[in-house]
Amino acid sequence: MATDLQKLIGASEEDEDEDMDVKEEDDDDEDAIEKHLSTSPIVGVDVLIGSTSNSNRFHSYSQMQEQVGNSGGGSRRCRPLEEKERTKLRERHRRAITARILAGLRRHGNYNLRVRADINDVIAALAREAGWVVLPDGTTYPSRSQASRPVSGPSMVDTSPSSQMMIPQQTTPISPRAMVGDGEQTGGQALIGCSIDTLDGKQIVDIPLKLSERDFAGTAYIPVFVMLPLGVINLKCELADPDGLLKQLMILKTINVDGVSVNCWWGIVEAHAPQEYNWNGYRRLFQMIRELNLKLQIVMSFHACGGNVGDDVCIPLPHWVAEIGRSNPDIYFTDREGRRNPESLSWGVDKERVLKGRTAIEVYFDYMRSFRVEFNEYFEDGIISMIEVGLGPCGELRYPSSPVKHGWRYPGIGAFQCWDQYMLKSLRKAADERGQAFWARGPDNVGSYNSQPQETGFFCEGGDYDGYYGRFFLGWYSQMMIDHGDRILSMAKLAFEGTCIAAKLSGIHWWYRTASHAAELTTGYYNPSNKDGYAAIAAMLKKHGAAMNFPCLHSPSPDQPEEFQLTEALADPNGLTWQVMNAAWDVCLPMVSENSIPCFDWASYSRLLNRAKPLNDPEGRHFLAFTYLRLNPLLLERHNFMEFERFLNRMHGVLSLFSGEAIVDIKQ
Predict the structure, then answer these.
(1) Hey, which of 3, 300, 593, 663 has its CA 20 to 30 A from 552?
(2) Which of the two residues, 348 and 61, has the higher pLDDT score?
(3) According to DSSP H, which parts of 135-271 are helical?
(4) Which fold has domain 224-652?
């Protein structure tokens, strides 16, 4: 019998014998206790059973253990070998049944269960399918779209039938209701302006909604994507933590997140040799995302990672590119002091065959074409919904004018990055075409990285930036950046035909309330107070049918209050944002966005909502999509995750049944 059952179960169960031995010893201990209870009435069984005191139970159980231990080793009953074998077979049989259940759920039910899944994983998967939210620590509650939700704090949700009957079936917003026990105080404070009812001995307190909160029910549906961690794929192009990531993705799926955003790093995929691409880790990641029925946003990351705000991993440019850079450092952006920035390649090499016989544009195109061939099925199935093409440092269309590693600190104006030989070659050509050969130089009165506009002769009020030479130089400097974007996007349009492409801009809002807009000028945005520098960028994106990704701006430094930073730096995030949005919408350009810093509080979410869906816009304009930065354990904490789901529902324009409602059962 044992042999037949082992064949049925399979040899994979043999590694569990050690666990069985532990279980058998525990069973022997239990048998010894039972035997002692039956033969030693002096222990006081009635005390063990009838007493409600935890201390008495513990004391009695301690006495029982002592008597068992003092009874001598010869009194311990040994089970016959046949009984031990039967117990072991029963346990193996039970585990075999569990293994078949898990295999069936994986194969026929599309459940993403790990190989060594246990019953907790099964329960969590079934709960999520039923619309419940299961957090990593086991906290479980219904989704807002299914049933009531807990509120922050130690109180728990009352999910009894009586509490569910209290919910009126209506489509208008429901006022907050707090349910307290008989004779209890609500936080020790009087409830002013609230009505109190009683149901089943509990008080129902109606708390008026805040009039300032905007109702987003029935507004446009904006898809929300969550950016995955920067290091989700390691330097070996392997999925770093597949089990942990799968659990997090399943949690996101329970609240109807539309998809995720993933950086595809050039420095990982084409790391060792030209045109040798390794997509293994991304292939496994995309398969996991497809099985969860999520969408994908892909970022073609042609820059290095590490050293900027929010970078928690280090991913350099490909090794073979770094080797070229050691012998020819002019492939990198260079400042006036000759310091190189290996974060990305200079615009000057776009058409120079300095990369093993290829130009930079050809290298970018070959990479994008390889991605399209490798994952063509994901394009055809509509799983990949958008490709954001990296156009510079941090994937943004800009110059690396504010490198922290070179000493820049907010709110410094930054520095021009055009002193490599290839950029200077282009500048000389432009000056010759204007008939002003002596203009073939960069400005020398621009201060340093941390200067302020009024401290320089170039950016000060009435400075050289608005003179003949200044307008020539700034026009050339900005046009080099726009031409770079134009060339790459034309290649991306060929590689990703039929799929929406996007380009990301940077929000340089400090010194916006000065005449020169110095920080924007060094970044490549020719946007002084007498010129709209974003209209030309929007026109270039419109030419390729690309969406514009412009982040929702916040104060860039947590060290000082936001009001102080904005005042001292003459910054205007709102003014800059509206200028960029109007430049895009004036040419009917789709807008997508993301949060510039992590946010978990409702005040930050409210700002994002009002930016994504402008109030009373006569044309009903709104963002095409929104990306939340980024997935991490802090987001999945109970209160933070509840606020994120609330934000998600409003981005979707869904009227949550429990919008603004708190049902709290304060137990006596």
Answers:
(1) 300
(2) 348
(3) 161-165, 242-254, 266-269
(4) TIM Barrel (3.20.20)
d(CA 44, CA 150): 44
Name residue 219's amino acid.
Answer: T
Task: Single out the catalytic residue among 270, 388, 594, 661.
Answer: 594
Tokens of 337: 């002091």
Per residue in 387-427, pLDDT (tens digit) is: 999 999 999 999 999 999 999 999 999 999 999 999 999 99
Dist CA 32 CA 64 (whole Å): 11
Distance, first Cα to last Cα, the chain: 57
For the CA atoms of 559, 563, 567, 572, the dihedral, rounded to the nearest 10 degrees, stands at 110
* Mean pLDDT confidence for 111-115: 67
Both tokens assigned to 381: 């199935």
Partners of 549 in the beta sheet? 504, 592
Give yes or no for residue 30 having a pLDDT over 80.
no
Amino acid letter for position 301: S
Task: With residue 444 as reference, give the H or E element that holds it.
Answer: none
Q: Assess whether 594 carries a catalytic annotation.
A: yes
Task: Report the distance separating Cα 329 and Cα 349, nearest Å.
Answer: 11
CA-closest candidate to residue 455, choices 442, 446, 464: 446
The pTM for the full model equals 0.71
Q: Phi and psi at residue 658, in whole multiples of 5°?
A: -110, 30
In 390-528, at which residue ranges do the beta strands (DSSP E only) sit? 500-504
**Are 60 and 47 contacting, i.e. CB atoms less than 8 angstroms apart?**
yes
85 is catalytic: no
Please state the φ and ψ torsions of residue 601, each to the nearest 5 degrees: -95, 160
Q: Where are the alpha helices (DSSP H) in 40-118?
A: 45-50, 54-70, 81-108
Among residues 292, 294, 237, the alpha carbon closest in space to that of 264 is found at 237
| CA pair distance 40, 454, nearest whole angstrom | 94
DSSP strand pairing (202-206 vs 195-199): antiparallel
Q: How far apart are CA 511 and CA 456, in angstroms?
A: 14
Which of 213-222, 282-291, 372-381, 435-444 comes out lowest in average pLDDT? 213-222
Active-site residue, from 270, 396, 645, 661: 396
